[in-house]
Specification:
This protein is 38% helix and 19% strand. Helix 5 packs across helix 6. The chain has 224 residues and is α/β, with parallel strands linked by helices. It folds into two domains: 122 residues, 3-Layer(aba) Sandwich (Rossmann fold), CATH 3.40.50.170; 84 residues, Formyl transferase, N-terminal domain (Rossmann fold), CATH 3.40.50.170.
Length: 224
Amino acid sequence: MSRRGRDRRRDGDAAREGGRSGSFRLAVLISGGGSTLQNLIDRMRDGRLPGVEISVVISSRSDVAGVARAEAAGLPVDVIRVKDHPDAQRFSDHVTLTLDVFMPDLVVQAGWLCYWIVPPRWMGKVINLHPALLPRHGGKGMYGRHVHEAVLAAGDSETGATVHWVDNEYDHGGVIAQARCPVQAGDTPDALAERVQALERELLPRTILAIRRGEVRRGAKCAK
């Protein structure tokens, strides 16, 4: 086993040991700046996410601010890049291996832009945060600014954020919770993004707590 592998196994053992005290453990998957990750970190520190901890952060890129945010918070980080693997299955196997080491209670895709083939044993344990009101404006290529441009192009009167269960189709799993905001005259994609991100900062932590408390079943909705 490589040094990196030994370190990852050691961190995973420590994370599982910590989880025995009753903490609800997250794995957070990122591909970019990590603003959603930072929101979770901040809320754990100030008590707004009680009993929740992050066991590991998986990043699909090494050169993003999200990695620095995780390291600054003292969190284990595993960088797993698509280009380092011959195909989607090998990439997915690597992601799954890291999760199998750390064994989080919930996997949170927070700005994760890669296709991970979720194996059956992880189904019902993975959620995604999407910056629109699914099923509208979802699917392959619908992320970030592209979503807000699509909302404006469609002439929608409202938009928002969705937390949903992850399956092996893009933005397809059952909706857990949504938050809504109006599309205003003269909105730009950037203005819309700012409004939706404000919703996301509240929606995701609230949904995590609902799942932790057992208020949400796979495929079921919780309060908006």
